[in-house]
Design goal:
Blueprint lengths: L1 E9 L2 E8 L9 H11 L1 H8 L10 E5 L8 E6 L4 E2 L3 H13 L19 E8 L2 E8 L3 E5 L3 E12 L3 E9 L3 E6 L12 H18 L13 E7 L10 E7 L3 E2 L5 H13 L8 E5 L5 E13 L2 E21 L15
Parallel strand pairs: 2-3, 4-6, 11-12, 13-15
Antiparallel strand pairs: 1-2, 1-17, 3-4, 4-5, 6-7, 7-8, 8-17, 9-10, 9-17, 10-11, 12-13, 13-14, 15-16, 16-17
Length: 340
Amino acid sequence: MILSTVEMHTGGEPTRIVVEGWPRLAGRTLLDKRREARERHDGLRRGLMLEPRGHDGMYGALLVEPDHPEADLAVLFMHNEGWSTMCGHATIALARWAVDSGRVVRAGPETPGSETPGSETIVRLQCPCGLVTCRVAADGTVRFESVPAFAYALDRIAPTATWGPVTVDIAYGGAFYAFLSADSIGLDLHTSPMRAIVDAGAEIAEAAARAIPIEHAEEPELGFLYGTILTDGGDGAGGQPSRNVCIFAGRQVDRSPTGSGVTARMALQAARRAARPGEERLFESCTGALFSGRIVREAPPVGGRKAVIVEVGGRAHPTGEARFRFDPEDPLREGFSLGG
């Protein structure tokens, strides 16, 4: 078996887009396909994400047939531990790839039906969490509006073995995250060793998941804590980026500012009345990459919680193409991880 991929990165965070070779998924809905991929083809995910073809920080996107009538394409997101429900950095990469590759025709002054003729191309991407609308500028910059985001729980206590009880906020931006300021546990996102940040993020995610039951009112499969986002305590206003580091899945560090995390951070700001519609915030990753975040409008409540539509902006870059062989005689064909 040979799988063909396009390789991209967004702020240093990789996106390995599987464009050819994956077995056809027969599921009727995208969540059905996600379940089928997890149950029947997870060895291919491990083989593409982990060594020797990948590494513990690899991230992937599998293109599948959409079932949403408005979608241009549909995607399943994968990482070192499994299958996620939303990914902003990969959405940015996919939208740019869709236009650069011709999968979606680039908008021009005479493009029929173009919403923003001559400047941005609309790409509608069906993700497991829902339909995401992307706008791709001529220079490759991408803005996307994700699914309704909301604050789930504010100022909740999660008991930890290392720091005792810590206070976290839980918010949803296509996935659920636990948020806290790094200095609340004695860490600095600019100077503390990354291993210490990863250890903290992983432990707090486990503690928060135990202490705070999470449910998504509309889709049970979305109801789980995806990771922890440690912040510098800032809000990203006034052109001063706020740094955050996202630890998710199997101790994976997002090199980008985390698009779904930015969406969730903006929902938290909306809940605390710290940001109004139209106000832009800037968020910085551990590589210095920047995403913008802006509340576009209110959305219908989700499970009785106030929700907002957030626009996230960033830029991805292509790095290459690859063809990966899965040799049935290779004992390591499904990959391995040294962990740590």
